[in-house]
Amino acid sequence: MTQFQSLFLNVLSERGFLHQCTDEKALDASLLAKDKPMAAYIGFDCTAPSLHVGSLLQIMTLRWLQKTMHKPIVLMGGGTTKVGDPSGRDESRQLLSDDGIKQNMEGIKKVFSKYIQFEDKFDPNTTKAFMVNNADWLDGLNYISFLRDYGSHFSVNRMLTMDSVKLRLEREQPLSFLEFNYMILQAYDYFKLATEYGIRLQIGGSDQWGNIVSGIELHRRVSVSKTVPEFFDLQHKVKSIDEVEAWHIKQNSDLENKRLFGLTTPLITTSGGKKMGKTADGAVWLNADKTSPYDYWQFWRNTDDADVGRFLRLFTELPVEEIARLEKLPGAQINDAKIVLANEATKLCHGEAAAKEAHETAQKTFEQGGIGDALPTFEIPSAELAAGIEAFTLFLKAGLTASGGEARKLIQGGGGKINGEKIESEKQKISSADLKDGVIKLSAGKKKHILVKAV
Fold first, then answer.
1. Helix, strand or coil for residue 449?
2. Based on CB atoms within 10 Å of each CB, which residue in 114, 321, 430, 455 is the most buried?
3. Side-chain half-sphere of 409: how many Cα atoms within 13 Å?
4. What tens digit of pLDDT does each residue of 313-370 get?
């Protein structure tokens, strides 16, 4: 493991966040500057009303940035969401309306305040986070002027070699011209943030490497191109832009002090090769109205044994020495480490009280066979329940299975239970007579439970 001088890079390195960096040594030195904190940003498009666990690595990176006395910038993609990022996708994203993007943005904003502290007005001298929206500059672009000023700095030949484009073409999947423009717009974001806010570091997932480097290159080329006439007067001919930059740095050392950097985090998959944040039931969301704190707790509690240590480093703030002890627990004791992971991850996202309640509910549900207060609930009209409803239909309605066929197989295989008792037939009628203390507890296997309430 590389040892750095700066606390931020040391934390990223020892906890497994660091994947690629444009110049580790130079960035390390820049992070030690005493005049003011380094401002760094990560962009988030507004494609859903909440972020999910797949975005948590980037959010934790911003949290560590702030904890090591630097300044996080959250870039909301109000503008780029209208285009759609092709990175890591085989097909185009569904285009959203302006109202849809606005609603999604409001939902996403709620997530960040749980992890980092914000300020209302940008101050480069504080470590408080600041949120910006790239629609503020992208929506008002004059297309022709934009192409003239910035399009000349991009080579189509090089753009075709970027993974976000190349992989789509290799798979013979369509790539629209709209999506092809995304790289230019993201690069322009970095240019705007660097020139207007003094931001010198962009962070993103490993699939964003090409876009990040393009932003650094755009800033370099635009900054240096302004010196071309002066260089021409001195040399009587203009050589490559790299030669111009080398000359310019010699004449103006301040350019080196404004150098931009890029850093990426690794793609996180489970030991079984699954994409992080995905389950059989879909995404694990960070907003409580989409994934309850209890279900969120259960997601972490169900981590594979081989992933516990890695996830503790990435998604909690426990000291690495304590994590090393937990991941070495023998045999069934590794479950204790999973509970620690679930408690710590849930505490960060939903608060200590929610984490404690989820843990207590799990204990009642699994260890004592009772009904925990934090179990997710499903409401059904009293009249419908009184008339009786077939078990497999209720399992499907309650969201315990994705289809009626799956519900039938679950019950036929003995995995469906009502109030802790095995359901004998998928057509068994469940009614208000099954209510206990006003609820019915449905169980799909050992790990999925829900309370049915009549309303």
1. strand
2. 430
3. 6
4. 999 999 999 999 999 998 889 999 999 999 999 999 999 999 999 998 888 766 555 5
